[in-house]
Records
---
Amino acid sequence: MEPFFNFSVITDNFTYFMIGRFPHGPLGGVGLTLYLAVVSCVLSFFGGLILGLLSISRFPAVRYPALAFINLVRGMPLLMVIFWMYFLMPALFGKVAENDTVIMALTLFTSAYMSRIVVAGIEGIPKGQTEAALSTGLTSWQVMLYIVLPQGLRNMIPSFVNQFVSLIKDTSLAFIVGVSELTHVATQINNRTMAFPTEIFVFIALIYFILCYAFTSLSRWLEGRLSWSKAF
Amino acid sequence: MITFKGVHKWFKSLHVLNDINLHVTPGEVLVVCGPSGSGKSTLIRTINQLEPISEGSLIVDGMNLSDRKTDINKLRAEVGFVFQQFNLYPHLSVISNITLAPAKIRNVPKKEAEEQAMALLTRVGLSEKRDAYPSQLSGGQQQRVAIARALAMKPRIMLFDEPTSALDPEMIGEVLAVMKDLALSGMTMIVVTHEMGFAREVAHRVAFMADGVILEEAPPEDFFLRPKHERAKQFLRQLLTPMHAECP
């Protein structure tokens, strides 16, 4: 009698799970998941920062479009944004790699959420800090750059981590447009072997967990390293 | 040096400054006192435009604050401000707290800015704290650093908004000593404070405010010995014998 679970489907396809057909073909599996997550993470950090700053601008002509954009994106399912980019980008710019449309969708979506974290972080810095800096003659931009953001960003770290953990998991939605990240690879192998869905999906669940947990631990370590935090 | 002419300010319907007329000459030390909510903090915050005025004219060091062409950042660089809550930058060391503004606004080279900062730290008696962070300092030390930070821009006017009100009693003296030293050096100063000993000893003039109005302006000896206004008399009674104020 055969054992109840058969994890040989994992060991047999291990390289494919990890890096797809790379280096003989395109990167896939965990490698592509990480690539999508890291690139979108970096881009949406800056996207969120810029959107956040625009959304609290003194000038209504800047503030309202930014707020409208943020609310629009936040009111849409991510899956729809992914479809949207997948069909819109090629229509606008000719041929765009599928990976890039997914990165753009993830960046757009995450930036909108990140911008609210940025605003909360900025508003959490006591007003006295801004007043003290203004009273020495610094311009409001210098106050933001040297006084408010350095303190605010540190307070934003836990929320950023939350958002990036969501982002890692959200990359799984890319499978719907045929980008061969981990979930897509898993469905491929599942379709080919037809017999081991439990083993395959338990395995990729574990991988997602490890990725997210590793990222959370890394950021906790980073937070502890920020020198002036110890002074409190 | 500072001239208020018919200055009014409203917070919505609240009339916080009511027809303020005040002139401060160079080198003068003016102490502003009065019960809480009388508008004295608002008054000095208008001078470097942390609070804009609603009506009237305010001229500081030759610059008209109502004039749209006035460069507010330039004005603020000429006017030092010391807060009740110190407001040091917690993420920067003491020396960086002081050198930030000269380095970024006046483009003073780092070495020179640090030398000037050290001279100021020596002046306030804290040269050994140059690399400490604000949270490692006592309240009195933080406030002295805050004074050094304000002086780093070489201001022509210094404003103090209740600089000792948030301090433990045993630290008040060290801050007042620095302020007295500054006054004796000829700095133009406006000080909102309840430290009547400081007012008596250092101030050239005392202004008493209540409900947004300057009720009385007099040299300290006249103000303390012969207050004219009933509100001022009451205020001084409460200040000198707080325990008995409730039951005359």
---
Amino acid sequence: MVKLKTDILKIANKKLKSRLIVGTGKYKSFAETAKAIKASGADMVTVAVRRVNILDKKKPILTDYLNPKKIIYLPNTAGCYNSEEALRTLRLAREMGGWKLVKLEVLGDKKTLFPNMIETIKSTKVLTKEGFKVMVYCSDDPILSKKLEDNGAAAIMPLASPIGSGLGLQNKINLSIIIKQTKVPVIVDAGIGTASDACIAMEMGCDGVLINSAIAQSNKPILMAKAFKEAVKSGRNSFLAGRMKKNFFAKASSTFKGLI
Amino acid sequence: MINLIMAKIQLNGKKVLIKANISILDLLKKYKLNNKRIAIEHNGKIIPRIICKKKILKNNDKLEIVQFIGGG
């Protein structure tokens, strides 16, 4: 029996109270990003690594709005198409502030943004050897996700559907198999479209969800962030509670005893 | 003659003319980046912040300065 108060998500050495991890891309402004993240209740946010704009010294930067001392930054390798690029990015991220817990994504194709699993497995192995704790964006293939776990992944992050598509959970069977077989946390990453998708993922037994576009690209990102916060909690509680048995025929809720 | 007082480096993919014999730390100060959360790669090698003062930039050096931005 899991006590709700102590139901925390532990990834490597980080303890998260919220099972909702949010991305920081695609918002209209940094102010909106900060407000939405606050409303989401997330303890961890994903961030990308890019060149500093050297021509504009006064331009605001993300760290001015989201204090990395107050919220856990999870550096990612978005935009990397091979192992070398991904390793270079994460080594730079580690240099920026000692981040060892990172999100690896090695893309295979510009149109689908599906992961290149061969390069992903290779990178996971190298990074783990270098002392990184690697959360890995991956396909929903149970065999390949097992390979990642065997190579030291700190969390398995299968896609629900293509990144930014909002198509929701497209392969529940594979996801269920991955949840059942994986010992490290399973976090659904990419493709979630709306709050109910996240709720279902949690109800299925996922340890967490990572959301960016579904919040940032809704009409009211701050309200949607709140919706996701509640959906993830509901889904988790529902999973912990355990659903009723399905019956083929009706079963009356009111007893027949004492019927007039 | 110009090479004694100036050096041409590639900074974040752009050709930039800087004073000769300045350190990476001097350059960071020039761009007001010395107090920012950034990481530096000098000719393909990551340079820890504490040794930026000692690293003198030379002609044709390649420097990459990165930061965190919004991302999913």
